[in-house]
Every structure is written in structure tokens, then in C-alpha cells.
């Protein structure tokens, strides 16, 4: 359950009135999620999601909420944060920073098929095109500059637990990725404000007569400026794998990459570095899961995700660089 702070109907009404959203007709806590307090809120003017932020503070939130608003106003299917009379998107409720965003229809597809990956590829590329005009800048806070100190923090804990192989792999992979990021190819990668955590549980689908239709992406609270291909790599490592083994599923990979390419063709350096960025994206989540596992924080991460899943993926992507490069080139060629 993810209601850390209880919100009453009068509390919600106060905020709804301030935002000009009408009378509250329903308020229901949302069970999913691990980080924030979320409620479905219905008013006489529509259906919304009310979030009370348990970790992020007022100063940190404008980047994420303004990005969502920018994307929503440029035709991308994302929740639209509602402003107050002064145009502010970050509000206060029950002593916490809060936001009210439009509610997406549908549900997450936790066993995505080719058709879901095609939709994801199209909409992800649209989102990357739309984010180009976004004026605020914040780096990906879970990027390379977070990795080195976090590896230093986690390594002694792994060693104390007798996980010396794991600690060695962490160090080796960090060294390889640091070198990759220092290359001229990496410096040439197109960048933008990207989601950085677009796993299958952060998208919604509705069923249309011709198949699933992506109704939106949400949970932008790890977004930041990074290579567009890093965002695509995060998606591939979650949407296009066999969850039990971490192995890539060729058909879903082709579907995602070829449909992305239809909207935003990859340039040569992006295609060349994508296998390396698959390693980077796997490493990022392996490390954050190790960090959550060994250094759990109060009032967040109720049930830490299993780091072993991403350790497996790191090992696979290291071993499969050439095979993955070939497969990606074929997927891109489908649409050339
Ligand atoms: N804009 C939205 N529209 C519809 N449902 C949403 C929306 N935002 C969040 N949800 C629902 O709330 C749940 C928790 O949201 P999430 O952002 O994952 O929480 P947390 O930040 O705590 O991890 C999601 O699984 C989804 O069901
Ligand atoms: N997707 C990350 C964890 C982030 O949690 P979220 O619920 O905020 O998406 C992972 O799987 O490690």
C-alpha cells in the first residue's frame, strides 16, 4: 500500500478549490507505488491523481512537473499537472509538497507483446522529439556522477556480506562505462530531458478495436537530461526481455526499435553506442537496487526490488555486445 500520509476529503477539497477543479466527488488511496502517497481524486470537473511527495522537496519538483506539462502540451500522452492561480504546479497539502495531474485511462501491461512494444517505440520517439524544446535543465541524478560515489558506498557492504565477485564486477563495469562515457562518440550522442525509468509499470494501455493503444506514460520523478539512447536502452532492458532470464526477446526488440526509428531515425553514433548504453542502463538499475537493498531509507521503498535481476542483465549485455549490435542494425534497416 502506498498511502504514507492520510488525506481527508476536506483536505482534498481545499486543494481542489485552490486549483479551480470543482467539488470533490470521490477520493481513494492507490495501493500501487513505493515512493509517494497517491490518491485517485474525482471532482465535478474530471478525474485526477493527487500525489503527496514523501521524498522530493518543493525545490526539486518543478523540473519534473514542468516537463510533464511541456510534454502534455506538445501532444505527448502524459499526465498534465494542474496549476494554481499563480501558475505554480507544486502545491502544499498535509505539510507535504503535492501535485494534481490528469488521470490516465487503462492499465499497465506487465507482460508486453510485440504490439505493446510497437506502441512504446512510436510514443517514446514522439516524446523525445517533443522534449527538445523544454527549457529547464537537470542532469539525470542517477547517471554517471551518481554511480562512482554509490559504488564506493555499496562495495564495503557487499564485501562484508562475502559478495566479492559482485563487488569486482561492479568495479569493472564502472571502469568500462566511465571510459565509454569519456569517448568522443558518447559526447556526440543527442541529449534531452528524458524519462530514465520507463519500465512496463510506468505506462498505461487501453484496448482499441485494432489492438492495444498506449494511453500514457507516468512517474517522471527520475527524469533528467541524458542521451536519448539511454532512455531507449532503459526501455529495451525492461520491455524486450524474458523476465526470468533477462535475455533479449528478438521480436519485441525489433518492434520497439523499428517503430522508434519510424518517428525519430537513429543516427550512426546512436546505433553504434546502443549496445554500450544497454550495459549502462542495466548497471544503473543494478546499482540503485543494490543501494536500496543494502541502505534502505525510512518511509520509502517498502519492498526493495531484487538486484540479482539486473546483475544477470549486466552480465548478459557485457557478453552480447556484438550479437546485440547486429540485431539492432537489422531492426533499424527494416525502416531505412
Ligand atoms: N496519472 C495517472 N493516471 C492513472 N493512474 C496513475 C497515474 N499516476 C499514478 N497512477 C497509479 O498510481 C500507481 C502508483 O504510481 P507511481 O508513480 O508508480 O507511484 P510511486 O511514485 O509511489 O512509485 C501506479 O501504478 C498507477 O496505477
Ligand atoms: N524502475 C525501478 C524502480 C523505480 O521505482 P518506480 O516505482 O518509481 O518506477 C526498478 O525497477 O529498479
Description:
The chain is α+β, with helices and mostly antiparallel strands. The protein folds into 2 domains: 9-102, Phosphorylase Kinase, domain 1 (2-Layer Sandwich), CATH 3.30.200.20; 114-333, Aminoglycoside 3'-phosphotransferase, Chain: A, domain 2, CATH 3.90.1200.10. The chain has helices at residues 9-19, 61-72, 114-130, 144-160, 164-181, 184-187, 228-239, 250-263, 268-294, 307-319, 321-333, and strands spanning 24-29, 37-43, 46-52, 91-93, 96-102, 191-194, 203-208, 211-217, 224-227. The strands form 3 sheets. Strands 1-2-3-5-4 form a 5-stranded antiparallel sheet, covered by helices on one side. Strand 4 and strand 5 (96-102) form a beta hairpin. Helix 4 runs antiparallel to helix 5. The mean pLDDT is 95. Adenosine-5'-diphosphate is lined by residues 2, 30, 32-36, 38, 49, 79, 101, 103-104, 218-219.
Termini separation: 46 Å
* CATH homology-level superfamily of the largest domain: Aminoglycoside phosphotransferase (APH), C-terminal lobe
Q: What topology, given as strand order, has the largest sheet?
A: 1-2-3-5-4
Please tell me what the overall shape is: globular
| Unreliable stretches covering 5 or more consecutive residues | none
SS-based class: alpha+beta
Q: Assess the beta-strand content as a share of residues.
A: 15-25%
Mean pLDDT level: 95
CATH architecture designation of the largest domain: Alpha-Beta Complex
Q: Say which molecules are bound, naming each kind only once.
A: adenosine-5'-diphosphate, ligand LJ64HWYM
Number of domains: 2
Sequence of secondary-structure elements: HEEEHEEHHHHEEEEHHHHH
Helix content: 40-55%
Keywords: Kinase, Transferase
Organism: Amphibiibacter pelophylacis
Protein name: Homoserine kinase
EC number: 2.7.1.39
